[in-house]
Amino acid sequence: MSAELDELYQSIILDHNRRPKNFRAMDDATAVADGQNPLCGDQLKVWVKIEGDTLADVSFQGQGCAISKASASMMTQVIKGKSREEAVKIFDDVHALVTGHPTGRDVGPLKALSGVSRFPLRVKCASLAWHAMKSALDADGKTVTVSTEGTGPDGAGA
Amino acid sequence: MVEGMVSERGALAPRADFPLLAANPRLHYLDSAATSQKPASVITAISRYYETINANPHRGAYALSAAATEAYHNARARIAKFLGVADADTLIFTRGTTESLNLVVGSWGRANVKAGDRIVVTRLEHHANFVTWQALALEKGAEFVIAELNADGTVDMDRLAALVTPNTKVVAFGHVSNALGTVNPVAEIVALARKVGALAVCDGAQSAPHIDVSVDSLGVDAYAFSGHKMLGPMGSGGLVMRRALLEAMPPWQMGGDMIANVGDQHTTWNVLPHKFEAGTPNVEAPIGLAAACDYLTALGMPNVIAHERTLAQLAMEGLAALPGVTVHGPAIDKRGGVVSFSVEGVHPHDLSQLLDADGVCVRAGHHCAQPLMRALGVHATTRASFYVYNDASDVAALVASVARAKDKLV
């Protein structure tokens, strides 16, 4: 297997895929978003519970490849307990990372997603849950649907 | 190429005939149901057209335009002969199956389907033969009903028969499923449509490339196909339809070439096939496709499906022997060279990514057949599809690569 592929499918990614964290529905969520990738039919639902300005709880469920599932799983771990502003900043960092233009800020365990940038077709897999999370924050209190198509030149395409 | 001859690698057609495959000896191209590779003869035919006779057909009085017109019509005659269509002018050139089906829906459908009518499709349909009719039904207030499948991915003919009621105006079905490879019993389906006077529309995208199709003998009212899946160029393809229907149908695109006389207030239409070919035609497409038909004729179409079934059978056995692998669809006698499968705990996109690293090109996704995926209870599958240039080494590479990917991902 190529070095690029090994970097894409790092063991941390495969572990999150096999045993995703916060992989559950949430009864008391304040916002929910459905993330859809119409090209492959993948769907992830992201639940967020906001208390004051804090993301008190984040969870997800759905169908997706290892990259999208692992990215969603790590996202729930990393942004839980963060403020809205911090969560959006991390979204920006991850988006920059997977599209091959890292901001240079420390993204902790999320740097495992850096391998995605070598596979442009997989960027939308890695971004799916993040776009859903961001729309959930934007549409506080409502259920929204976000698609990987039409989210911009790098999140979408193909 | 002698009919039935097996080349050095066990393929029906030599890899050397296909420049892309010849340049990539380690490539295992198993996505011909999406699009086929092109033999040098097809590529050369297109180049030679531009190098020697390029002009706008049907327009100039000069010799070059006449040569282009002649080449365009000669291509139509050869493609019609290949498909078993006696009346070549009932073969309308389009960009492919999708455009052909949109022509049937947009012209015949809009003019003939009304509120209270019924349109019947099968659960196997590609979106091109599903969404088109679904949209027409919604537009007209017609019923849109779906014939469900047996457990093996074949159409449940009893249920289909029950659905084809006297108010049914259209029975639309694929000849061969792109997602499962299921070969449908065309004659039986046509008989059901005949009984109630419904239009029998056949999506031939996956049959024209692989089966010795005689459209006239199929008995369907409309047959749509794509050239790029049968060794021809992208943007080639057509619609074959009964002359009486085509003559009664309104044109679906207006412009040059499709008119007989344009008055200030009224216009009359040109004869077939021109009535349905508005604007400057894509001349290179049928010229390339005709060369592809010649190539396939030399291989022998009965040999093509036999070869594909041999490889599909090998793949089905090899994959099914791996723990956690499920092969979808019917037994080999009811399918073409398509093998769709799922691996427990492995998403098709991850699988196809790892297979790609081994030079194995397969399709991962819903195959433009989401209604079918729902019935199978999956979001996506991985699909390997075989054609004339594939051989047993491609199957071996596929099976070995799936086994390796499974070990890594599960």
Q: Which short descriptors sum up this protein?
A:
heterodimer, A: 158 residues, alpha+beta, Sufe protein. Chain: A, four-stranded mixed beta sheet, 5 helices, 4 strands, globular, disordered C terminus, B: 410 residues, alpha/beta, Aspartate Aminotransferase, domain 1, Aspartate Aminotransferase, domain 2, 2 domains, seven-stranded mixed beta sheet, four-stranded antiparallel beta sheet, 16% strand, disordered N terminus
Physical arrangement of strands within the biggest beta sheet of chain A = 3-2-1-4
Instruction: Give helix % range of chain A.
Output: 25-40%
Tally of alpha and pi helices of chain A: 5
The biggest sheet of chain B amounts to: 7 strands, mixed
Number of helices of chain B: 14
Description:
The complex is a heterodimer of chains A (158) and B (410). Chain A has 158 residues and is an alpha+beta fold. Chain A has one domain (3-147): Sufe protein. Chain: A (Alpha-Beta Complex). Chain A is built from 5 helices and 4 strands, in the order H-H-E-E-E-H-H-H-E. Chain A has helices at residues 3-8, 11-18, 66-79, 84-98, 123-138; strands at 31-37, 42-51, 54-63, 143-147. A 4-stranded mixed sheet of chain A has the order 3-2-1-4, covered by helices on one side. In chain A, strand 2 (42-51) and strand 3 (54-63) form a beta hairpin. The longest helix of chain A has 16 residues, at 123-138. Chain B is of the alpha/beta class and 410 residues long. Chain B folds into 2 domains: 15-30 and 301-409, Alpha-Beta Complex (Aspartate Aminotransferase, domain 1); 45-297, Type I PLP-dependent aspartate aminotransferase-like (Major domain) (Aspartate Aminotransferase, domain 2), CATH 3.40.640.10. In chain B, 40% of the residues lie in helices and 16% in strands. Chain B contains 14 helices and 15 strands. A 7-stranded mixed sheet of chain B has the order 2-8-7-6-5-3-4, sandwiched between helices. At the A-B interface, helix 2 and helix 3 of A face helix 12 of B.
